Fold this sequence. Notes:
Number of helices of chain A: 9
Number of strands of chain A: 10
Helix content of chain B: 55-70%
Mean pLDDT of chain B: 84
Distance between the termini of chain B: 31 Å
Low-confidence stretches of chain B: none
Strand content of chain B: under 5%
Radius of gyration of chain A: 18 Å
Order of helices and strands of chain A: EEEHEEHEHHHEHEHEEHH
Largest interface: A-B, 30 and 29 residues
Strand order of the largest sheet of chain A: 6-7-8-3-9-10
Largest sheet of chain B: 4 strands, mixed
Distance between the termini of chain A: 29 Å
Strand content of chain A: 25-35%
Number of strands of chain B: 4
Structural class of chain B: mainly alpha
Oligomer: heterodimer
Strand order of the largest sheet of chain B: 2-1-3-4
Shape of chain B: elongated
Order of helices and strands of chain B: HHEHEHEHEHHHHHHHHHHHH
Helix content of chain A: 25-40%
Radius of gyration of chain B: 31 Å
Amino acid sequence: MIELRDLHKSFGTVRAVDGVSFTARDGEITGLLGPNGAGKTTTLRMLYTLMKPDSGQVLVDGIDAAVDPIAVRKRLGVLPDARGLYKRLSSRENIEYFGRLQGMDEATIASRSAALIKALEMEEIAERRTDGFSQGQRVKTAIARALIHDPKNCILDEPTNGLDVMATRAMREFLRRLKDEGRCVLFSSHIMQEVGALCDRIVVIAHGRVVADASPDALREQAGAANLEDAFVKVIGSAEGLAA
Amino acid sequence: MKSVLTVFLKEVRENLRDRRTVMNTLLTGPLMAPLIFVLLINGIVARELDKADKPLPVPVIGAERAPNLVDALKQSGIVIKPSISDPERAVRDQDADLVLRIPESYADSWNSGEPAQVELIYDESQRDAQGSVARLRGILESYAQRTSTMRVIARGLSPTILRPLVVADRDQSTAQARGGMMFSMLPYFFILGAFIGGMALAIDTTAGERERQSLEPLFANPVARSKILLGKLGATGAFALTTLVLSIIAFSLAGLFLPTEKLGMSLSIGPHFAVLTVLVMLPLVFLIASLQTLAAAFAKTFREAQTYLSLLMFVPAVPTMLMSIFPFKTETWMYAVPLVGQQVTITRLMRGEAVSGSEIALCFACTALAAVLVYFITARIYRGERLAIST
């Protein structure tokens, strides 16, 4: 479970995040929707302790990120916006490296990476050096290494960014599976259809603030709109920076 | 501690797969400098030796006017070349290094006991000809000396009357010290080796990771950044140390091929030298690795980091140059200054002079302290929010 309480973050005079609060529950997919530049990535970066909030609190399974950031990172599987791989290492070696950094023993790393490689259908690329991987292959490797330690909470920043249709479908399927395993899944997106199709709960962010936090049905009702797209546009105030 | 080792092993493994880095560490870094050095020294030595022994051809104008002088020249290894028409021009055009002209008045002056003049035509600005000029001048002067001695004896006087003062050279430098002077660049080559060896990793592990956008996911792991940094520094230091050790070995072997004894020098590059050099260089290697990583952490891109690090490489040249320009007396405080301490220690070791245990300890401790200090500064930079953000 992830709880964000009144997070603020400024860069110079720009208020990137200006009072964001929401909760992402276990066994649910929570979608963070917002136009480009709304503050989604900054919010997530504070959540996985890459950045310190100017004020506010981050709680992961009840642990305060400001008090024990290492314990928080142990409980998170993070696919950041930046997903660079080590080109001179194979896909499997990339995954194993993160397993060791998570403090796992070699036997567990071996069985866990085998399971992830199977689940993400990346058997064919596992032993290949990641230099020259396609975008889809890179994202699969990045997800596998992010989830190597079997984290209860999964955070994915725009996971379908740059993927083709087939890879996007597979990614959505994978996110549903994570949810079925009882994990807390939080992902960000600027694609309305994706969020509508996947999420149990939608948190809409605009200009660094939460403008809506509800289930897709409740959101439609709340905005008094027939479909989700109209509802989003209504709560955000404009369709700029969003994709259908 | 385990996570430090994980980072260390991964960086070593990844960089061992990079052919260019491996070439730099194992080949270019350690071998380039000694190779250039050996070629250079051999060239200089060969040239000097050549000049001293080889017959020296000299065009002589008016050789028939001074048969005795010409005979004396021939005996001293001068090959008499036929007269040329415009000697000044020949020298200016570098067709001849030097020309000897015996004027018409030579025989008359000689016979009447007046100073007989010969002309030496050369170009002072031609460095190459200087040795030949000095040699011919020396032969001429010793001929004059011999003649004057004979003339004085013929008049019933003691030849010592012509030599009121005698200068005796008593050179106090040992053969090893003379070698050391010539090799004052050596410590710089070792330090340079450490720079080259660590450069690729310092850039790759910091600026490179950031440019490739892999630093942010790395920092999402439950490992303190200072530990990640320590692993990376360890890998950088390990590569630099490999370069250094190879370069010391290369120099020891190269020393065998240097004709140092011909120059009246001896070098003590042996196991004793190698072990103590590695010892005093060890903390410096990590100081350099930390400095390189620190500089790379400020760079946004690989290329920018390369520029910073290339500039950083000139820093160790400063004490080397100052020390070879200004003669200095080794003082204790010098051992306490990183770079200078290594320079002094290695130079003394090479000359076969004693360096006390406390001096080596001082050098080691002060450099190690500086390395730790720079590590903490770098760790501070590493903790910064901006470091991980690629865009």
